[in-house]
Amino acid sequence: MSFSTSNKESIYYAGVDVGTGSARAVIIDNKGNILGLVERPITRKELKENHITQNSTEIWDAICYCVKTAVNQAGIDPDQVLGIGFDATCSLVVIREDNESPVAVGPDWTDNTENIILWMDHRADEETKIINATNDECLKYVGGQMSIEMELPKMKWLKNYMPNDSDGTPLFEKCKFYDLADYLTKKATDLDTRSFSSVVCKQGFIPEGITTRNGWSAQFLNKVDLPELVEDNFRRIGGENGINGKYLSAGETVGSLSLNAAKELGLSQLCMVGSGVIDAYAGWIGTVAAPTNIPIPELSKQDQEKKGMGKAVGRLAAVAGTSTCHICIEESEVLVPGVWGPYRDVLGKGYWAAEGGQSMTGALLAHVISTHSAYAELGVASEASNMSKFDFLNSKLEHLTKIKKERSVVALAKNLFFYGDFHGNRSPISDPSMRASIIGQSMDISIDSLAIEYLAACEFIGQQTRQIVERMQESGHNIKAIFMSGGQCRNGLLMRLLADCTGLPIVIPRYIDASVVFGTAMLGAVAAEDGMKDLKRRRGLSTTSMHSNADKLQPPSPYTAPAATASVTSMSALNPVVADSYPFPVLTTIKDENKKPEASVITDDEEDDDLISFGASKNNQERVTTTLFSKTKINDNEQAADKLWKVMNKLSSPGKVIFPSDESHPDRKLLNTKYKIFLDQIASQQKYRAMVEKTENAIKEYLSI
Asked: What is the rounded CA–CA span in Å between residue 504 and residue 481?
């Protein structure tokens, strides 16, 4: 795959990431440099406990703002953005079938603008229990049971509570349902194409050939009392693959931007759209292909033995923010109790993805710090020291180690046993009733006490990561390294604990805060390549421009500095977001070798290389129609997964490695002992809850007599 831009116009790719609290857009060049990165906050409403909603119109408007601003920030011609990808949280979007207008999802049924049930909405508790009680075959491929955060329970809740339409018929029967990432690709292309990432991971779809059921299961949906979703070959949830529906893997192309979307985004219709993914999976794409500053022997050996996407096996991505997702792939089916999946075709046809998760990591650290009596003192002290709160606490721990004459920082918390599942457990025990506990706490409320409790919380994150990794390993995965992303990467203490708890190398990416949206831009790069291969078969074609020559921006100026970074992710809940802004570091420009590119006409005689760098001359060529790619079928014998890996490999910059301490190191020995205590805390809590439940049931039975 060539990345040379010689004699060709520079080409750029866009990525869009919709998180819980903001939308972001990035522009990258064909070397993987981030040229523009823009973030805009989005709102959410919680009018009733556990009922959390968002607005798809607001989200699309934020996306359009971010893309336009990122292009302007990059200083490039928008016509040269030839690929775009979308990722989003696994939230449920509801629109009318007849006119695609938004539909209210409650609790305020009069507000049709609030048409998204956010991923963290927990209203569908009873519906989730009913679905899981079926023990249907579909549940085998979502970790044994559906989570309350998945989308089928949300659809069932809507059926139960949605009011009738104005004509007296059930409104539920007039709706279509989308995962947010799929809705965005639909909005961008006018093509109703779904992603395996969305429907397999969150809605109960089983790809062809895994079981006797291919795709959606009428038997399962009828069993959970959702026959409306079965009608007309499942038309309300995407249709039947190859009949009235189309489903794609990451690295496959949906089509070109529609005329309207191109205008709204400020791009051209030659910009191709890649199949969308759930945000955490974009984080996997954006991190795991990174080379490392120090070779990791097991990965080096695998790189010699494997080809294409097979090289990604055993590379676990830990996408860390408010919560953390742990994603890896295998070449064969591996069932892991308590870990979501295995999901086939999500990250490439034929590959199986597994997804573990911690419900609270960044949010846990924020909670532990902000609820401590010394939090105000921490704020004053860290500000006076011109340090972040985490850097100050880490420095304080080093100081305490000397004052208390402890062997190491880890030893400071040797008799403090902290279990941090405040919001239930996602993986690997899948117990939403788990809660936090702490043993060994004193009456000390000083900033020293805060520092040690913070240390214990970091240790908990490391120990729980070990538990997830061990469950995966015991089930058949062979994890060789953990590729981190998110603001937590800046926390050296936490990264060291992750390495020493798991015994695995930790890889820190170049773009700490932008790994997710960077991965989505890679999907745009693959789509652009597909589009260009079709364009190369046409003589004398130019891009379809939405912009007059007078509106052209200045030639691009690539940057080598790291991506824009916000405040440490785990403290984001404590710091207000300033609207329409994103802190961007001072960037250093490099010589722009493509300032005056020579025009080149792409002909059928050119070699059909795997080009990521390509372009079409705009001189003396006929203008193509605005629907050039809208119905174009991409013909390519190369496997989509291997194409995606090539792009990931070429665009990824080296990461830094933190290797675990030797097994004989005192800290490793202490952490191994405390891991046994960690497991005992889980077993004890479950045992105590069972004892109390037994007593309560006996009391209820007695009182009913």
From this structure: 6
Query: How would you label 65-90 residue by residue, b for 16+ Cβ within 10 Å and e otherwise?
Result: bbbbbbbebbbbbbbbbbbbbbbbbb
CATH number of 12-279+517-651: 3.30.420.40
- Strands 348-358, 340-345: parallel, antiparallel or unpaired by DSSP? antiparallel
Strands (E), 579-691: 622-623, 656-658
Helix boundaries (H) for 84-146? 125-133
Residue 245: pLDDT over 70? yes
Per-residue pLDDT of 418-473, as tens digits, reads: 999 998 999 999 888 999 999 999 999 999 999 999 999 999 999 999 999 999 99
Task: Please state the φ and ψ torsions of residue 344, each to the nearest 5 degrees.
Answer: -85, 145
Quote the CA–CA distance of 78 and 70 in Å, as a whole number. 10
d(CA 420, CA 366): 12
- Look up residue 97 and give its two tokens: 């079938």
Gap between the Cα atoms of 485 and 325, Å rounded: 10
State the distance between the two ends of the chain, measured CA to CA, in whole angstroms: 77
Extract the tokens encoding 676.
Answer: 């046994």
Helix or strand run (H / E) with residue 401: helix 389-403
Contact status, residue 519 vs residue 26, Cβ threshold 8 Å: no
Residue 182 CA to its chain's centroid (Å): 14
Give the Å distances, CA to CA, from 7 to 135, 350, 613.
60, 38, 10
Query: Which of 613 and 144 is assigned the larger pLDDT?
Result: 144
- What is the Cα–Cα distance from 348 to 306, expressed in whole angstroms? 15
The first and second tokens of residue 108, run together, are 């305020």
- The domain spans of the chain are 12-279+517-651
Query: Parallel, antiparallel, or unpaired for β 315-320 and 340-345?
Result: unpaired
Is 230 strand, coil or helix?
coil
E-strand ranges in 282-421 read 315-320, 324-330, 340-345, 348-358, 417-419
**Residue 238 — left, alpha, or beta (φ > 0 → left; ψ -120 to 50 → alpha)?**
left
Residue length of the chain: 705
8 Å CB contact between 73 and 523: no
Indicate the pLDDT class of residue 602, thresholds 50, 70 and 90.
very low
Residue 685 sits at φ, ψ, to 5 deg, of -60, -45
Omega within 30 of 0 (cis) for the link into 342 = yes
Please give the DSSP secondary-structure letter assigned to residue 544: -
Confirm if 244 and 528 have CB atoms less than 8 A apart. Answer: no
